[in-house]
Amino acid sequence: MKAGEWEDVADPELVPERLAALPSRLFGRISARADRLSTAALAATGAHRWQYAVLVALVDGGPASQATLSRRTGVHRSDLVAVLNELTAAGHVVREPDPDDRRRNVIAITRSGRNRLRSLDALVDRVQDDLLAALTRSERTELVRLLRKLSD
Amino acid sequence: MKAGEWEDVADPELVPERLAALPSRLFGRISARADRLSTAALAATGAHRWQYAVLVALVDGGPASQATLSRRTGVHRSDLVAVLNELTAAGHVVREPDPDDRRRNVIAITRSGRNRLRSLDALVDRVQDDLLAALTRSERTELVRLLRKLSD
DNA sequence: CTGATATCAGTTGTACTGATATAT
DNA sequence: CATATATCAGTACAACTGATATCA
Lengths: 152, 152
Description:
homodimer; mainly alpha; 62% helix; DNA-binding
């Protein structure tokens, strides 16, 4: 993954059918494309890709410990530390020791964090739209249904 | 990506709907799972994940230069060098200068390479089956159709 | 001179493992 | 004692970029 001008190395005309229809290969390629689109869209804002997931998890689920946030987002607890450092430094969340369980930090979103999320929301929506541009609206719905079945 | 015992960090019950239904996130997670399954399956054979793509491209498209192989497989020409070094060392392909264009190497599969591909084929099929286990046969067909539309 | 080819060295981001300190 | 939490250092891999030498 990287930003910049991009030229696909594969030529659809040349790719043998056995490879072209291989689910694991398709997932890898589409996922790489999604990463490129996300990174490009977020580059302007200086936001990390995981910031969005964390802010959504806080708004939709309320304040939480880092361990809970990890379970809500799927972001690994090891990686969450750096994301929260960034968000805290920017004033988008506050991180305070939990008085009820002193192992935990309680993470809460700030007003600035809510504003941040609103602007990221628009970017993320455009990325999904770009990514799924080749599909009709009903195909998109069906695709998401199938992907969700797979990810459980 | 790594092998070993694996425990999902996300708890499906806790993931907010906005994240759970996000295509770019779903692609990332499923692609990571596909990588884990492939790596685990290939670990026993000592094969790199790209070996399979290269061997298929040679069998289905005939001998070719490295640049052509890159376009057939989508494997980057920079990465292809190492894969071909491995395959050459194992005797699965032969790499010879092209007499008609001395910039090129002609890569051709050997009998040992064809045998290798047959054993990898079985592994790859099982990985796809594992990956798509949650879907019915017709859902799998529809999914592949949608993924192919996206990857063009 | 331009473009294509093969090679090599290095970079970035994701998704981890493993270890440690601290508290329940 | 086991278990959960937060943190940090480090690893493996895909998918690149950029540079160089060679040749058409």
